[in-house]
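Students often ask why inverse folding is considered easier than folding. One informal answer: many sequences map to the same fold, so there is more than one right answer. In these notes we will look at a single instance of the problem. The structure comes first.
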């Protein structure tokens, strides 16, 4: 090939680039100027510049850029990853924009976080004009070929998108792999499960691939086949352990199946690979608290707040969750100094909520309720009641009074401030209301079952596990003793109480009727008066109660 051919090709590309509108963002002026000169050398005329994340967002409000080269490190509080996430959330980017994150970062955590945000390109500093030219040329070709389909995807016009993708695939287009992945998303959105299954299984005939397996797992979830989804995701992660999104999906499936300890383990694996994702850390904090692992929950909650600060994902939930976790975990701190530090962190979180969401009355109400729970956890009953009283006043000034979506937080706050009967009424109403969201109903039921500290929950859980092991080995006497120790820590827990009842009944099968064992059973049932027909342990409770009444002539 002769030199004239390449010169002609370069001239044609330069002429095409001249119409592109470009933005360069870097904290250092000399770096911005260097990249600007590279772009102009490629024939790009219009090059705007900024040094801050806010500058990028403001510029994108004013202009529709074709290319954005954004450094990870920027002036101000936002980094390049947060900027990209915010621009997408605010829909300030053209569907076919080429967004390039530029970075000199070498930390694996940072790089993995950047890659999870899925920029169109990632350029590691330093780079040459030739490298930049090759990367941009590749992206421009793809953007031109897929522009219409990306527009359809952004507009959620899936029927037309499916036709376009299939046409490109049938024509053996260069970007068929992109089209196939996009088809999975389109088929899921339109519930065309048979087409999705056919596509994914065809791709898996010759070799294992991550994206078809992920697509099938998502299909199983959509169809309610959670066990099949779990099986597929576990296989996927065995073959492709770096497929980070599969960890999040698997953890959610396991949690929805009640396997919260397994869900936490999966999230721990994911966080070892990529810890700088806000949603993942928040999920870890939530699941850890359900499992009674206060220290893991605290660490994840702290990370959630840090990652959310100055990002589009920042919200009052993160700060209030941190306050509640500190309230539940501070008593298990190794030293008074650690406890003091945690309480200071919780106070700072409350202060931040007040500042960041100053004009939001609903947030102010939630903050006051959280403050009451924190005070109650430290034994400051009078201060807890004062904050609760203030919250009631704030609620009374709102249209309709206390918002129904705050009923869970309100019930927990009432309980901590000593208004236990009122708390049970509020939470029981939440559990028994058919319009309550399932996750809120479950959280309310869980609190009614076990309104104790995370440390107490964890210890009770361990004793219960030991009791179940003894029960399995038919050592019913010792099993009953372990269950009683657990109940001393968590007296209202249905599973613990019913385990005790079963242990007592097994003892009486071999030793005959014993008054003290019958009394243990009766007292256990009295502790479970809060268990309603909706509770997952209700059928078991009724069966054991009827068995006791029938075989031992005991009125319960």
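Output (designed amino acids):
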């Amino acid at each position: 090939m002769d030199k004239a051919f390449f010169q002609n090709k370069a001239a044609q590309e330069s002429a095409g680039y001249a119409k592109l509108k470009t933005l360069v963002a870097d904290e250092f002026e000399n770096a911005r100027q260097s990249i600007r000169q590279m772009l102009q050398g490629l024939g790009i005329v219009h090059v705007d510049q900024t040094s801050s994340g806010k500058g990028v967002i403001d510029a994108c409000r004013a202009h529709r850029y074709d290319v954005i080269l954004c450094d990870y490190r920027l002036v101000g509080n936002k980094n390049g990853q947060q900027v990209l996430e915010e621009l997408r959330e605010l829909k300030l980017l053209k569907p076919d924009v080429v967004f390039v994150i530029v970075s000199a970062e070498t930390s694996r955590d940072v790089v993995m976080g950047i890659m999870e945000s899925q920029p169109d390109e990632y350029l590691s500093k330093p780079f040459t004009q030739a490298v930049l030219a090759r990367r941009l040329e590749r992206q421009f070709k793809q953007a031109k070929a897929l522009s219409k389909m990306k527009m359809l995807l952004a507009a959620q016009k899936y029927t037309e998108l499916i036709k376009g993708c299939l046409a490109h695939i049938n024509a053996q287009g260069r970007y068929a792999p992109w089209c196939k992945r996009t088809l999975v998303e389109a088929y899921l959105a339109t519930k065309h499960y048979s087409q999705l299954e056919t596509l994914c299984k065809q791709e898996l005939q010759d070799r294992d691939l991550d994206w078809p397996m992920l697509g099938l797992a998502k299909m199983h979830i959509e169809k309610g086949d959670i066990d099949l989804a779990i099986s597929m995701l576990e296989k996927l992660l065995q073959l492709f352990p770096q497929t980070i999104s599969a960890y999040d999906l698997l953890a959610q499936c396991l949690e929805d199946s009640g396997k919260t300890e397994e869900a936490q383990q999966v999230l721990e694996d994911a966080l070892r690979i990529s810890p700088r994702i806000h949603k993942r850390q928040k999920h870890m904090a939530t699941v850890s608290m359900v499992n009674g692992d206060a220290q893991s929950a605290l660490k994840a909650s702290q990370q959630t707040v840090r990652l959310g600060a100055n990002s589009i994902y920042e919200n009052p939930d993160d700060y209030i969750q941190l306050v509640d976790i500190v309230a539940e975990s501070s008593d298990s701190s190794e030293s008074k100094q650690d406890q003091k530090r945690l309480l200071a962190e919780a106070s700072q979180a409350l202060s931040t909520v007040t500042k960041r969401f100053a004009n939001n009355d609903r947030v102010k109400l939630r903050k006051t309720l959280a403050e009451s729970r924190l005070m109650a956890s430290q034994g400051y009953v009078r201060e807890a009641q004062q904050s609760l009283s203030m919250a009631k006043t704030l609620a009374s000034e709102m249209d309709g009074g206390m918002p129904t979506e705050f009923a869970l937080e309100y019930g927990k706050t009432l309980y901590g401030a000593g208004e236990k009967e009122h708390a049970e009424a509020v939470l029981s109403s939440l559990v028994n209301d058919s319009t309550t969201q399932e996750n809120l109903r479950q959280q309310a039921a869980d609190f009614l079952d076990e309104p104790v500290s995370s440390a107490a929950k964890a210890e009770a859980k361990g004793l219960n596990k030991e009791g179940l092991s003894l029960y399995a080995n038919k050592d019913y006497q010792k099993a009953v003793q372990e269950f009683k120790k657990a109940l001393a820590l968590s007296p209202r827990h249905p599973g613990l109480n019913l385990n005790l009842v079963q242990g007592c009944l097994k003892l009486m099968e071999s030793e005959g009727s014993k008054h003290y064992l019958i009394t243990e059973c009766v007292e256990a049932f009295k502790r479970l008066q809060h268990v309603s027909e909706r509770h997952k342990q209700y059928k078991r409770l009724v069966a054991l109660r009827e068995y006791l009444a029938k075989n031992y002539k005991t009125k319960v």
